[in-house]
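Lecture notes, structural biology module. Today: joint structure prediction for complexes of two components.
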Amino acid sequence: MNDRFLKACRREPVDCTPVWLMRQAGRYMAEYRKLRERHPILEMIKTPELAAEVTLQPVRAFDLDAAIIFSDILPVLECLGLPLTFISGKGPVIERPVTTASDVDALPAEADRTPLNPTVEAVRLVRRELDGRTPLIGFSGAPFTLACYAIEGGSSRDFEQARLFMIREPAAWHGLMERLATVIADYLCAQVDAGAQAVQLFDSWAGLLNPMDYKRFAQPYSHRILSRVRQHADVPVIHFATGSSGILPELKEAGGTVIGIDSRTDLGRARSLLGSDIAVQGNLDPVYLLAGPEAFSSHVDHILKTGGTMPGHIFNLGHGVLKQTPVEHVRALVDMVHERSQRPHAGSAPGP
Amino acid sequence: MNDRFLKACRREPVDCTPVWLMRQAGRYMAEYRKLRERHPILEMIKTPELAAEVTLQPVRAFDLDAAIIFSDILPVLECLGLPLTFISGKGPVIERPVTTASDVDALPAEADRTPLNPTVEAVRLVRRELDGRTPLIGFSGAPFTLACYAIEGGSSRDFEQARLFMIREPAAWHGLMERLATVIADYLCAQVDAGAQAVQLFDSWAGLLNPMDYKRFAQPYSHRILSRVRQHADVPVIHFATGSSGILPELKEAGGTVIGIDSRTDLGRARSLLGSDIAVQGNLDPVYLLAGPEAFSSHVDHILKTGGTMPGHIFNLGHGVLKQTPVEHVRALVDMVHERSQRPHAGSAPGP
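The predicted structure, tokenised, for the full assembly:
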């Protein structure tokens, strides 16, 4: 069994730096595109066999140290009675966004977990298929990021409407966050019960907040979720946000075994700021992966060097793989990380 | 004459914290909307009398400590033969974006300064009109941000195309940056010669870069511009970027008398990181200004407290005023900053 990833999460010695890539299953792979021709994105997510197949595609194609379940962060909103559609070229659309305090009051008192069942089932299928060879990561969006979509009604550069709602209607905001936190914690625990050996909490837009607002409006809910998962089972938890240079200490406070660092942050500075009692994941710019090995070679060296100053580094991108990325670039990156980070005396490899 | 702003730029004692607001002239003011009904945005910028009038509107309406010339960062691109249009609801569009290295080679060897003349003339008109009562700030976009628009062809969340070009075509990138740096430095010096008493360099998207890329692809050109302006005249230079928590030391290295801090960064942390030998400007979230005095009161206190730990703080937003902002909120903010930051013994006010 390849346990490099799980060891690095626990800051234990590894034979070389483990690597997986956010959005490693996706449109850049021909196998994926072939399935997508016949199935809309929500159908792929909602059909356990399809989600499982897509999850496994990159694990078969590359020497990755972890699989991550194929899904999306938004189906959690369906549990609160907020149906969504994906419109080609526009991305996700929440059909009836939350725009007033009474919209929050009108949400069902009891969340409906059924929209998440297919993903939990897919976790079970993938885990069985992998048979312990590669660890499987489950995930969910964090409450702040999901609330942003629920209020804004879709994607946005700054989520101004959502942040305005948060400021003007703090009671309703906290009500929405409470509901999201409960269903997200349940969802992550269900994925762990189904076989996920680690989970990642994606707080994609938390970097839009300054530390004061993050602590007041987002941190308590992420903290509650991360604590509940850790109480439920002894699995590593990766806590990730983009544009998060300004709130790294607060992200750590909220919890997580590993902090995911985005591409704009220098990994060495992040490590000094976070201290040696936590692992880090990251942080190659996906644009470099798209540009190719010649372009990313020196960045890989820099990331391995700064990430490797303390135990507990998982190599990853700072954000998801871009859809135009050639598969050979992905293969070259994964192999480069392994080759250049070999520590023959640290892992279980026999001595000379 | 009100010289609080200029004193704070030089880190000299002031009677209270000076305040001005990015995009303080704009659609949130009825006087502005009335003019905009009759004139498209580019006509407003290109007609010195209109630009001057719009510049003065907020200075007449509120107790602001500085005026900033009404213009846009993009007309600089016209100097390189890249015409632009503003499409309602879509924003700026560069008609023939730079997409290949040969597009850079095909740019005119000698930049045409005439597209910038109306703004320089507007500076002259405003300076005469203000007659020393309120200092006037000139500005330009920074080369990185302008190159992003030139390549991407318009606005974008991540400017992926532009950053990919930068990585794949470094020689062409540097060629484009060279040309931009020359015309921007000339432009800022011309504004100073026309009467601008300070200038701001807006590197709106520099926060998309990690420190390594910023140093390689952007910093040398901003540094050259900021040095040339300082050699040309003894005027304060404000250096601003958004999402810049991760590159603050590099922004300081590039130059500037004042570093503009965006809303996502804690001002106190920025001050400790930057040190006491530089002034700071910022950093209320524009969404708070939109939400109103009850919402922004505690944030104003926090910003005045953390900004005031060392001499040299100019109060501002972390980004531009949002167009839906009620004018009473702007008035309340300006007055609140002045009232709550009074230092009766520090300025020129007589003792008791």
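Point to remember: Chain B touches chain A at residues 157, 160, 163-164, 167-168, 207-213, 243, 245-247, 263-266, 269, 285, 287-288, 290-291, 295, 299, 302, 322 (CB under 8 Å).
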